[in-house]
């Protein structure tokens, strides 16, 4: 069977399941207002949470690096791509997280599929939440370690699993998200991390959505929960709250050395380009100096959640800037998503299999720079379209 025949067969099955995806075309800078599929809309579907991507300091730093160093690092970090700029950024990231060292990766996905197999293999076990991000799941598969999954946020189940595996496996890694990307809730880190310590488990915290956006200084969910010192491996992204591109692992110097020597997604990839690195350094400065962005983001998120709740629309269990509105079926979700787009609001519909069957939802993500009246208008539109498209 040829490639086209295989593609046609698989795509037909995807369409039959109602899970066919296509990419919308966005125009303009990442900002509260953009053009989506040719229509000007308010953007409530992005990850540029703090609206830093177009910050003048970030843009100028990137442009200056492009002029002085070019648009490519020119190779992998272990051959010709390890620029002084990379080392400087990693020192700043480590300082930002209160760690001894850091190492950058191309994406958060690459960081997880690099770090988990570097720490665990046959004879080891990874303990993970049922709603862990796909990159944690794939990192576990690549590691060939045993995997034990506990129900989402269930502390009793977690303790039971840790108790069982601590005596039967060589190494135990607890791999969890800080902020769950489809529900917007924060992991109960203040309770989870002591359990890990009690049973001798290492802790990997994937804080992709908390980096820059949570905590008194933007250090994320661990800072918010007061447990920063208990995280062994801290994964953060540069492409969400920091408005740039890339990801990083922060931890000890031996961990960094191990990753440089064993993490395949680091070893066999080109280094981040100089403009991206310089932009990230500037973004760290903005996060440190403009704390009002975090405050505004969380105030906007609270206004959105409260506004929907006042209309009888649940956004549970969200407590952050990821605000889910469960609609039930894939069909209803995408109908509401399209209706909102036509009214000038882009709030992406998320369907099974990205979320459990029957829990399809609008995943709404406000920005720090959205105005109060814009959020109120979105709340009204969501309420009206849910009524027009009953379950």
Q: How is this fold's topology laid out?
A:
Elements: H1 3-17, E1 26-27, E2 33-36, E3 39-43, H2 56-69, H3 84-97, E4 101-105, H4 108-119, E5 125-129, H5 134-143, E6 146-150, H6 155-165, E7 172-177, H7 189-198, E8 202-206, H8 221-225, E9 233-237, E10 247-251, H9 253-262, H10 264-267, H11 274-289, H12 292-310, E11 323-328, H13 330-342, E12 345-346, E13 348-350, E14 360-364, H14 372-388
Parallel strand pairs: 3-12, 5-6, 5-7, 7-8, 8-9
Antiparallel strand pairs: 1-2, 2-3, 4-10, 9-10, 11-14, 13-14
Describe the structure in your own words:
The protein is built from 14 helices and 14 strands. The chain is an alpha/beta fold. The strands form three sheets. Strands 4-10-9-8-7-5-6 form a seven-stranded mixed beta sheet, sandwiched between helices. It has a four-stranded mixed beta sheet with strand order 1-2-3-12. Strands 11-14-13 form a three-stranded antiparallel beta sheet. β1 (26-27) and β2 form a beta hairpin. The two termini are 41 Å apart. The model has no long low-confidence stretch (mean pLDDT 96).
Notable traits:
single chain, 391 residues, alpha/beta, Aspartate Aminotransferase, domain 1, Aspartate Aminotransferase, domain 2, 2 domains, 7-stranded mixed β-sheet, 4-stranded mixed β-sheet, 14 helices, 43% helix, 16% strand, globular
Q: Write out the strand line-up for the largest beta sheet, numbering strands in chain order.
A: 4-10-9-8-7-5-6
For the sheet with most strands, the description reads: 7 strands, mixed
Beta fraction: 15-25%
Compute the number of structural domains. 2
CATH superfamily of the largest domain: Type I PLP-dependent aspartate aminotransferase-like (Major domain)
Task: Could you tell me the CATH topology label of the largest domain.
Answer: Aspartate Aminotransferase, domain 2
Gross geometry: globular
What is the total tally of β strands? 14
Structural class: alpha/beta
Total number of helices: 14
CATH class of the largest domain: Alpha Beta
Order of helices and strands: HEEEHHEHEHEHEHEHEEHHHHEHEEEH
CATH architecture group name of the largest domain: 3-Layer(aba) Sandwich
Distance between the termini: 41 Å
The radius of gyration over CA amounts to: 21 Å
Overall pLDDT confidence: 96
């Amino acid at each position: 069977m040829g490639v086209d025949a295989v593609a046609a067969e698989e795509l037909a099955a995807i369409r039959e399941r109602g899970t066919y995806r296509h990419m919308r075309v966005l125009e303009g800078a990442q900002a509260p207002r953009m053009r989506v599929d040719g229509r000007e809309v308010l953007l409530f579907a992005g990850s540029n949470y703090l609206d830093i991507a177009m910050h003048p300091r970030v843009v100028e730093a990137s442009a200056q690096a492009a002029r002085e160093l070019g648009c490519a690092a020119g190779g992998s970090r272990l051959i010709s791509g390890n620029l002084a700029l990379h080392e400087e950024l990693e020192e700043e990231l480590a300082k930002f997280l209160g760690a001894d060292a850091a190492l950058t990766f191309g994406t958060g996905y690459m960081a997880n599929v690099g770090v988990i197999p570097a720490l665990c293999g046959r004879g080891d076990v990874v303990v993970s939440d049922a709603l862990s991000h796909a990159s944690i799941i794939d990192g576990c598969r690549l590691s060939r370690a045993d995997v034990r999954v506990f129900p989402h946020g269930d502390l009793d189940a977690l303790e039971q699993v840790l108790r069982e595996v601590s005596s039967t496996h060589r190494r135990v890694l607890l791999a969890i998200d800080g902020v769950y990307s489809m529900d917007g809730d924060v992991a109960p880190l203040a309770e989870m991390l002591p359990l890990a310590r009690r049973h001798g488990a290492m802790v990997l915290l994937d804080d992709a959505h908390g980096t820059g956006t949570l905590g008194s200084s933007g250090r994320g969910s661990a800072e918010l929960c007061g447990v920063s010192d208990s995280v062994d491996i801290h994964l953060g992204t540069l492409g969400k709250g920091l408005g740039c591109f890339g990801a990083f692992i922060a931890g000890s110097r031996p961990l960094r050395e191990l990753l440089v020597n064993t993490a395949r997604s680091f070893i066999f990839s080109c280094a981040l380009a100089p403009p991206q690195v310089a932009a990230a350094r500037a973004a760290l400065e903005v996060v440190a100096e403009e704390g009002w962005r975090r405050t505004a983001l969380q105030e906007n998120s609270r206004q959105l959640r409260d506004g929907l709740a006042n209309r009888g629309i649940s956004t549970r269990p969200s407590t952050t800037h990821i605000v889910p509105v469960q609609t039930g079926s894939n069909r209803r979700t995408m109908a509401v998503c399209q209706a909102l787009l036509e009214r000038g609001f882009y709030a992406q519909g998320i369907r099974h299999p990205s979320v459990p069957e029957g829990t399809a939802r609008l995943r709404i993500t406000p920005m720090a720079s959205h105005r109060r009246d814009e959020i109120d208008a979105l709340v009204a539109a969501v309420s009206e379209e849910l009524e027009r498209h009953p379950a």
